[in-house]
Amino acid sequence: MNSNDLIHIGTMRRPHGHRGEIQCLMLNDYWDSSDPDFLFVQLDQLYVPFRVLDWRGKGADTLIFSLRGVETEPEAARLSGAEVFMRREDMNDDQAHSVAWSDLVGYTVIDRETGRLGTVSEVNEQTINTLLTLDDGRLMPIHEDFILDINTEKKELNVDLPFQL
């Protein structure tokens, strides 16, 4: 499985109960509005597929998964902290043409007024305002209203920022 075929959807947290269920902190709602059979867990730089037997919500941003082959609490605990992905082809049509914030890592940010600002090295969605970290360490709040264009072929994010970095 190629990383371009996958989209980052969350991070495994901790086991839930003693039957191998595991909690996953979700970064977006792609999983909720799709119906995929598999999720992919990044383990040792590999994307390992797990068939989803069942899932349910817990709070606003957490899902609890039951996965084939994960039947005990220790087996679930081995997945804790791992990043979780789904296939882009499993996304519904509206989602498949969108770009997640996490996809912007490696994109060059170009402001309409000031030109090149830098390259996105990290995306932080843990706060109310999503922050992009540029390669020089500057933090840049990002919002859909700031975006003029996302060129996936050139890996460029064209913005019109209402502030100066």
Summarize the helices and strands and which ones pair or pack.
Layout: E1 6-16, E2 21-26, E3 38-43, E4 46-57, E5 62-67, H1 73-77, E6 83-87, H2 93-96, E7 108-111, E8 115-124, E9 131-134, E10 139-141, E11 147-151, E12 156-159
Parallel strand pairs: 7-12
Antiparallel strand pairs: 1-2, 1-6, 2-5, 3-4, 3-6, 4-5, 7-8, 8-9, 9-10, 11-12
The CATH superfamily of the largest domain appears as RimM
Domain count: 2
Note the run of SSEs as H and E: EEEEEHEHEEEEEE
> What is the percentage of strand-forming residues?
over 45%
The count of strands amounts to 12
The largest β sheet comes out as:
6 strands, antiparallel, barrel
CATH class categorisation of the largest domain: Mainly Beta
Radius of gyration: 17 Å
Q: How does the helix and strand content classify structurally?
A: mainly beta
CATH architecture of the largest domain: Beta Barrel
Overall mean pLDDT score? 89
Distance between the termini: 38 Å
Q: What report would you give on this structure?
A:
By secondary structure, the chain is mainly beta. The protein folds into 2 domains: 3-96, Elongation Factor Tu (Ef-tu), domain 3, CATH 2.40.30.60; 101-159, Roll (SH3 type barrels). The protein has 2 helices and 12 strands; from the N terminus they run βββββαβαββββββ. The chain has helices at 73-77, 93-96, and strands at residues 6-16, 21-26, 38-43, 46-57, 62-67, 83-87, 108-111, 115-124, 131-134, 139-141, 147-151, 156-159. A hairpin with a 4-residue loop joins strand 1 (6-16) and strand 2 (21-26). It is elongated and about 55 Å long. The protein starts with 5 loop residues before the first strand and ends in a 6-residue tail after the last strand.
